[in-house]
Amino acid sequence: MAENCREVQEWVEEEVVTSVEEWVERREEKCEKRKCKKLCLCCNKWFCWIEVIVEKVVTTVVTTVVKLVTTVVCEVAAVLIDVVNLVGSFILGIVSGLLSLVFMIPFLGTLLRWIYEVILAVVWRLASIPDVVLGILGLFPPKLLHVRVLVACPEGVDVTDRLARADAWVKSVQQIFLDRANVRVVPPSQPFRMKAGDDGAFVHQVPCGDAIVQPCGAGAFWDDLGFGPVPWYEQTLLMENMGQYLDSTRRILKYGAPLFVFMIDDVKGPGGCSLGPLADYVVVGLDSEGLTVAHELGHACGLWHVKGHDNLMRSTHSDSKLKKWQKIMLRASEHVTYF
Hints:
The protein has helices at residues 2-33, 43-103, 108-127, 129-136, 160-181, 218-227, 230-241, 245-253, 290-300, 324-331, and strands at 143-154, 183-186, 203-209, 213-214, 259-264, 266-267, 272-274, 281-285, 336-337. By secondary structure, the chain is an alpha/beta fold. Strands 1, 2, 3, 5, 7, 8 and 9 form a seven-stranded mixed sheet that branches. A two-stranded parallel sheet has the order 4-6.
């Protein structure tokens, strides 16, 4: 939280304060170039310099106020997080566990989860309208996306190579999201830590018994209804969150909820699969590249397939570029937040 607050403060100073200072400099240059009216002893330049002095005073005040407001907002947010941590987390954690159990009921539970996910996605996108306006104006303050890679480990398989590949995925996704949308990809960590004493690592390995091969497209939705391996995904997330009240709460409230990347043996066809806003996890075949992981996370954040040979969201992606509207959409996701 503190680190992202510092980043936002730096961004404010760079984007807002610098713009005001450049405007004052242009005013000074204009005053210097203004011709002196000798009949009134250059009185026209007197007023000009008075304007510049006033503008510098205003700039100082604006700079101070903006920095103060940013600091206060960060401090208030930190206090609110502590309050949630101390007061509401236990109850919300219980609610989270109960809802997770309901959502694991084949067919009916999944339908309820889909409705729930869509409603909250709409709510948080409406709440992000101010951020959308900033994006339309070309302003993109630094935001966060919490991601964890869960490596499926079949019995008798050496996981060393899988863990190394997962680390490479993380580095690739971090670079893409930072360069294209000014979104810093971080692991779920304090105060949103997965487990007490957790090291905040990006990658966890989870046992899965047999190798998992996942279809995509309509087959993925069919499996999500309870007729395939998808219940294992939800069961795994439930165990990951068991007793971890605050992260469970985020999964229920959805604001800043982590996205989970399941590394499985294979995804038939595209190499990766996402249910979009209907789930907070994606599945990716272990032979896929980091670009595919970023593509699937884009789906989970509300982006869809587009044309353009160099676009990240092209169905057969080969580059990581995003259009401005895609950047705005991604940053408006309930998963992409300021803390």
